[in-house]
Amino acid sequence: MVARRAEEIKPFIVMDVLEKACELECQGEEIIHLEVGEPDFDTPDCVKAAATQAIEEGFTHYTHSLGLLELREAICDYYAKVYQVDLDPEQILVTSGSSPAIFMIFSALLEAGDQVIISDPHYACYPNFIRFVQGEPITVPVFEDDAFQYRPEAIKEKISTRTRAIFINSPSNPTGNLLSQERMQAIAEFEPYIVSDEIYHGLVYSGAAHSILEYTDRAFVLNGFSKLFAMTGLRLGYLIAPREFMRPIQKIHQNFFISANAMVQKAGIAALKHAHEDVARMKATYDKRRRFMIRRLRELGFGITVEPTGAFYVFANARHLSDDSYALAFDILNNAHVGVAPGIDFGANGEGYLRFSYANSIENIAEGMNRLEAYIKTR
Q1: Which alpha helices (H) appear in 145-242, and where do they start and end?
Q2: How far apart are CA 252 and CA 258, in angstroms?
Q3: For the chain, how long is the longest CA-to-CA vector?
């Protein structure tokens, strides 16, 4: 008999879209992929060189369970330079991507029945992490006309004696919007711990992303190298935690994961120290794609009240086409051969929306928009 927690875990619908798209490609169809949030750029040369050198030098064994000290020190330097935040390397644990970091933070933070406040819409997997360790996600709706930002007063209404943490994600997946400095500061003043997913930091095209650590030390930070440095397949992330949680989290890591990949940690050091020009080039290209996609989607009747200024997503109102985003996404895939993510994947308040990723060439994005235009004309 399969365990109930495994039976009840919800699918990651965007992966279902991707897998259906791959099935169509195997049948000879050409699919424009606007559904997946993965950089289309090659990993920077300095990163590949560092990983290759580590392998050639035999640096392929376990590291300290917290991660290489040199990498943790480089992360400290990065947060000091970008956010003026003073960190100790002993507050950082290096992981194989940010997903294990989420699992370990909630494993260390939550007892059965504890609650975590999350926005709606939110990254599709957040509730699954919380429920898997017997916590309860409590949703706070965020709205298109307010740039999908948390309203602190709405959070306050949901805080109870069982609230253990407030989960924030800025820039946001799926919306691409940033939480304002004023609202972040207000949220930091609430009693529960803050868990801040900062994986899209650095990919901001107007204004600035702020770390929660600028406003409180009662916070956990998730970050990594996949998005900013185009290192998705290398699986390298990290968490930053209050000192009293570090030893428990370290023990969880020792037991479940041992350590992050040794040679990839060397690649992470190179990314932080030498990949700035590569990041600037990728960011400039993303911004061109962002502006092009927003213009074309608006021309096609999609609602974008506040332009997203971070990550590489546009969360567009598609109610002029359908109120069923799941059926719409698969219909677009089957008939227009364009992959998009249905808004319902990101929570009930995402229904009626589609998420478009501009982590693809501008030529492919243009073709995808042209196919969408033809598709809409046939409805």
Answers
A1: 152-158, 181-188
A2: 9
A3: 60
pLDDT digits (tens, 9 = 90+) for 99-126: 999 999 999 999 999 999 999 999 999 9
- 41, amino acid identity: F
Whether 53 is in a domain gets the answer: no
CB 329 within 8 A of CB 342: yes
246: CATH? 3.40.640.10
Which of 235, 251, 274 represents a domain boundary (last residue)? Answer: 274
Beta strands 338-339 and 32-33 are: parallel
Q: Do 51 and 267 form a contact (C-beta atoms < 8 A)?
A: yes
Indicate the number of domains in the chain. 2
Task: Indicate the SS3 state at residue 349.
Answer: helix
What percent of the chain has pLDDT above 90? 97
d(CA 306, CA 304): 6
Same domain, 140 and 98: yes
pLDDT in tens, 202-228: 999 998 899 999 999 999 999 999 999
Does one domain contain both 299 and 372? Answer: yes
Q: What domain range includes position 283? A: 4-42+277-377
Do both 333 and 269 map to the same domain? no
Domain check: are 229 and 261 in the same one? Answer: yes
For residues 187 and 251, membership in a common domain is answered with yes
Same domain? 72 vs 216: yes
How far apart CA 197 and CA 194 sit, in angstroms, is 10
- Could you tell me the two tokens for 362? 């501008």
Answer yes or no: are the C-beta atoms of 296 and 325 closer than 8 Å.
no
DSSP H helices, the chain, are: 4-8, 13-26, 45-56, 69-83, 98-109, 126-132, 152-158, 181-188, 243-256, 262-274, 276-299, 325-336, 362-377
The answer to whether residues 362 and 350 touch, using CB atoms and an 8 Å cutoff, is no
- Residues 367 and 32: beta-carbon distance below 8 Å: yes
pLDDT digits (tens, 9 = 90+) for 155-169: 999 999 999 999 999
| Selection from 186, 219, 203 nearest residue 85 by Cα | 219
Residues 246 and 106 in one domain: yes
